[in-house]
UniProtKB/TrEMBL annotation:
Name of the protein: HAD-like domain-containing protein
Xref: Gene3D superfamilies: HAD superfamily/HAD-like
BP-aspect Gene Ontology terms: glycerophospholipid biosynthetic process
UniProt superkingdom: Eukaryota
GO cellular component, one term: mitochondrion
Length: 369
């Protein structure tokens, strides 16, 4: 492993909220454009459950200017997680990491759905995942004016899924008659809490052509004139604070497809976003480019580094986008297993601080040549 040989500033033994490590990334304070930018996964890289990983604060302090370049190095947080507005996620991370993170730096799995607002702003959409009416609030913050949830559907007709009683949550429901309200799209914003009811509702909407309770249309019509279905996170597994990885939204998608295929004989067409998909990395590239242009003025995007813990999402996506990638050993990937990562990174590092130091030194050595 490459050890630091450049004149890094001495590490501070302690960091406090009174002295934020990272001021707002959009503040125009430097004139020298840095030669690199970063995209960080969150869980398993910066955070371990609700708590920051040990080297996360040091890594962000380096990006704040405590580096041999003496400049702020721009970064974004690119996660397959979600469940909050970007503002809420930025506030939570700022508090826990002792930094000031702007909502514009946060790209969650469902952030890319902002691109669909123009098409669906006035059409009824079903928002799956999250707790209660959280995903409706996120969708409405993006500009979707007719966003509905599983709770809305169950409050309208509890017989949709007679195996649970959700009366306690019906107070959160929007009163709407779904027998005359066509659902135009199903957006799986975040991991569903009850797979059974959500798979049932998805199949009902698709098979009935968007009107719940209507007779089912033939499979060919379902396929040629489909209800738009978008999954925002392909992760089969994700790292929580439980010792072993947990099933994610990718597993829910597989469950839905298995049931739909059993019912109809074919899989259902869908759009997949989230790491490692190309559209998500293109979206992230545009976000970071805009941040850089806000700080330094219009210019070229520097070399991009993705720091992640999951070879299947972080590393595969970065490699496909032509970014450099660093796989850290603090999350999904287990370096002691003896099994090499399924997608080879540019570099491996024990933690996020070493990953950042390696990338900065690498770019500096190129500049010095």
């Amino acid at each position: 492993m490459l050890r630091s040989k450049l004149p890094w500033p001495a590490k501070s033994p302690r960091f406090t909220r009174q002295a934020p490590l990272l001021r707002n990334i959009q503040t125009k304070s430097e004139s020298r454009r840095p030669p690199l930018g970063f995209a960080f996964d969150i869980d398993g890289v910066l955070m371990g459950g609700l708590d920051p990983l040990p080297k996360a604060r040091n890594a962000l302090r380096i990006l704040d200017g405590d580096n041999p370049l003496k400049v702020k190095i721009p970064y974004i947080l690119l996660t397959n997680g979600g469940g909050y507005t970007e503002q809420e996620r930025a506030q939570k991370l700022s508090s826990r990491l002792d930094v000031q993170i702007s909502p514009s730096q946060v790209i969650q799995a469902h952030t890319i759905l902002k691109c669909y607002v123009q098409e669906y702003a006035e059409k009824a959409i079903l928002c799956l995942g999250g707790r209660g009416d959280t995903m409706r609030k996120v969708a409405e913050s993006y500009g979707f004016r007719k966003a509905y949830t599983t709770i809305d559907l169950l409050a309208w007709n509890p017989a949709i899924w007679p195996f649970i009683h959700a009366e306690a949550e019906f107070a959160l429901a929007k009163p709407i008659d779904f027998s005359i309200t066509p659902i135009s799209a199903i957006f799986v914003f975040h991991d569903p809490r009850n797979w059974g009811v959500d798979v049932q509702i998805m199949c009902d909407i698709i098979q009935s052509g968007g009107i719940l309770g209507n007779p089912y249309v033939d499979t060919n019509t379902q396929q040629t004139n489909p209800i738009q279905v978008i999954f925002c996170n392909p992760d089969l597994l994700w790292k929580s604070d439980f010792p072993q990885p947990r099933l994610g939204q990718g597993a829910f998608r597989e469950s839905f497809q298995a049931v739909y295929k059993k019912l109809t004989g074919s899989e259902y067409p869908y759009v997949q976003f989230g790491k490692p998909t190309k559209p998500t990395y293109e979206y992230a590239r545009r976000v970071l480019h805009n941040l850089l242009n806000d700080i330094y003025g219009v210019g070229e995007l520097p070399n991009m580094y993705m720091i992640g813990d999951n070879p299947e999402s972080d590393i595969a996506g970065a490699n496909g986008a032509g970014w450099d990638s660093v796989l850290v050993h603090t999350g999904v990937y287990n370096p002691t297993s003896g099994i090499p990562p399924t997608h080879l990174p540019t570099h491996e590092a024990p933690d996020v601080e070493e990953a950042v130091r390696w990338a900065v030194e690498r770019e500096m050595s190129r500049v010095d040549k």
